[in-house]
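Memo to structure team: turn this sequence into structure tokens by end of day. - J.P.
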Amino acid sequence: MNYSTLKKTVVLSFVSLMAVGMASAQTTTTDTSKASGTATAKVFGGTAQYNTLSVGLNVGATAPDVFTGGVNPFNHNITKLGYGLSVRDQLAHSFGLQLDLHGGHLAGDAGVKFPVTDMRGGKPVQSFNTKFMSGSLSGVVNVGNISWLHRKNAINFYVSAGAGLVLYAPTVTYTDGTSFNWSGHIGANGTNRTKDYVHELFIPIGGGAKFKLSEQLSLNLGYTENFVDGHNLEGVTPYYPASNKYSYGYAGLEYTFGSKSKPSLEWANPVAMMYDELYDAALRQEVEALKGRVANVETAVNDLKKDSDGDGVSDQFDKCPNTPAGTVVDGSGCPIIFPKPDTTKVTGTAAPTAYSNIQFEFDSSVLKTSAYPILDATSADLRATGGSVEIDGYASSEGTAAHNLRLSKDRANSVKTYLVNSGVPAKKIKVKGFGETHPIADNSTEQGRILNRRAEFKKY
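Reply from structure team:
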């Protein structure tokens, strides 16, 4: 079998196995009905919950050229057997580090028209056969295990690239039928050579597909192009530029070590894991319980807001329910009883509201409209008699003493401002603040506190 026929056979087999694997993937991954928390691995749980170490054995065909092209000094490539061992540590769902050990032979024939010049003595070379061994470390990127379409995959595609060291020893056969084996004659020709092998750096670049046979066993089909940093691979020096390279197409089995209770990281789909965690039975129960607690809170808030009589105080705090509409109530929902105006006569004239106490709302120094008649009568009397007056401000006992003292002064000044604006000379008015001292009613009751929020007049 020539190289071209073998290449076609390998490619056809590779495509056929891919088709079978993809069909299997469609069959095994469409069952998504079970979305419960049965996964043995959790998102963000680390690699300890997976099996990550795997070992593979493979065998395949080698050739002294690559699919991507290039120049080769020999016209005909002869397919030879290659073999390999791989050890991979899967570091993440889509990436792993892999150590590869390969061995085999490379061979080619010059044909009858274009003999190749030997590096050693200029004799025409008919063919070569190179024995090689190599070791490399590569990064392997999976491109098929993270899927939004299927829960599980039966086939994973991957690409790889790395670097390594290759050891080789060519044997060349001349057109006269004699041959020369480099092994045993290499050491004197350069620092990169041992007695039996030339050793060069090389870069392997490849790709392939893996077919899942079980959680721990998979079939691996791949192809690697190896680029050698040297010009001795075929044992000759051609008259035209040529780079040393060879390919390795292979098939093999790969086994993942570890507990059978753990999934393989290489085949785990993180999208399915996230879906399972969202639909975990325990998590859903917690969500339902949280919904119940939220509903209870909403009910309690609605109860707090309920105000049956519309007086602005919720039913839970309303001590006087069913008050008539429009009734002014205090913080406990009870009606406020305002004091009657003072009907004392001033200077012998009937002045029922002059010099009566001025009442204020809680924590306020703003004059109420009900105080205007008292203030107007007081202003009229002061302007008529030319008398002077002292305005004393007071507060109830809520709040701090310092705050109540400021509030009482503000109340007295509010009264003075009104009188001055009505025509009473400012020099005729004095103001003082006494805070919560000198109450005229009991501060332990709301009605008493209302009376204590006042301003008093002292005429002199």
